Amino acid sequence: MYLEMFLLYFCIFAAGIVQAQNGRRIPGRKLDCVFVEQKQNEGADMFVPTTIKRKANLLFGDIITNEEAIIFKVQESSLDIFQYADEKLDTVGCEISRYSTHGIHVPWPHQGKETIEDVWFTVTLKHSPSRFTVTSFMRKIEEPDSQKVEKSEAKTDDEDLVIADTDTLFVQVVYIVHTRTPLIRTKLKQDLVLDCGYKIDHSTDFNIDWRYQHKGNKKKLFAYNGRHQRVEYIEKGVELFMDQIKQGNASLLLRNIGVKDEGSYLCSVYVPPLFGTHTIEVEIMESPIVSVYPDSVSLIEGDEQKLVCDAGRYYPLDVEVKWLRQKGERHMLPVYMTNVIFSPHKQNMDGTYNVTSFFRFTASLRDNGVTYTCRVEHASVDKPIKRYIQVSVEAQSRTLQFFLLTVVIIFICAVVIMLLIYLKKVAEKNKKKPY
Ligand SMILES: *[C@@H]1O[C@H](CO)[C@@H](O)[C@H](O)[C@H]1NC(C)=O
Ligand SMILES: *[C@@H]1O[C@H](CO)[C@@H](O)[C@H](O)[C@H]1NC(C)=O
């Protein structure tokens, strides 16, 4: 592994020197790729295609590799793939496949040679945390400066070309379609640029087309005819950067994004006979607003109390609300509450959801000093959202004692007062006896 890395860097370094000396434009670079092919299973009753993956190297500039791989040598006059893929190589996935024009033969200009095989490949560079996807169309060309006699079967159909595990193919990058936003996770009410760009190695006709699809719902959003430089269709609410469309910017602008805008957006740029498409996924992520009530509560033994946790305005629907009970300090493990009741999800006008979760309990002294935690997990947040309720419970007995004491005092006072009144009456009676 380290040796490979070392060799790679060494090669890049060496190529850099060669390049500097020659003043070439294509930087020396090697990409590890997989060559993916679909093969029909012969002999089987059903046409079940199997996917065959083989090791491939994509080489740029004067770089040499000894790897046992299918070598695609990208020739100089090509477009620059890396212009749209500016990340470190190790986070980029590279996949090469054959590209079939499905029998459509549209001549693609080629400097010098007239007769040229119609063999096409695509190479897709994907950055793993979704920073970009670049699809480049490569056409197979003859080995440059080759002394070889032209093969008798000058024209091969792309489906027929057999590629062995260590073959070297010379290719030219002629057309690139790219996006810097293959996945957009967004809050509501934002303005979004769905990035889509293209580059063709010569000036020619092209058509741009945007489509939307989500859960079986499909619609056309935009169609542009490059030959007539005319917008043929544009859906309400959709905008494009029309001043840049001919310069290779086919990006779409959506304003004030709502839940209804979630879905897949397909940007297609058709340069006959090549059809370049990227899918841009738009996902709405709105974090729940979590609140509990009451946030602290003082109870007397035997009291019944309801604790409520509201999670509001979240999207998508999946949410997990849990109640935990923890007594004392951290060393005590929390216990999940089981007697919890949930309201059905309520939908707000903007498409977000609310849910309420609550439970009741009868206070006992064991609940004194307990913290109840409402814990909400949602795709929009890395860590669960937590809200706490502190509970304190006082013993009923002490209160009762106090109550009894009060009653006794009042009783004694009453007795004393009545006694005094009685004594006074007796005294008066005795006084009224003059005779
Ligand atoms: C297209 O133009 C918009 C607005 O200037 C910009 O945000 C976007 O990155 C451009 N995309 C490409 C592919 O040039
Ligand atoms: C959902 O919760 C939010 C606050 O979290 C509140 O403002 C809104 O009224 C609630 N909607 C419904 C339908 O209960």
UniProtKB/TrEMBL annotation:
Is Transcription regulation one of the keywords UniProt gives this record?
no
| Residues annotated as transmembrane | 402-423
Q: Where is the Ig-like domain?
A: 190-269, 288-386
Renumbered to this chain, the signal peptide range is 1-20
List, alphabetically, the SMART domains matched: IG, IGc1
Annotated keywords: Glycoprotein, Membrane, Signal, Transmembrane, Transmembrane helix
| UniProt protein name | Ig-like domain-containing protein
According to its UniProt entry, this protein's organism is Chiloscyllium punctatum
Where is the organism placed in the taxonomic lineage, from the top? Answer: Eukaryota, Metazoa, Chordata, Craniata, Vertebrata
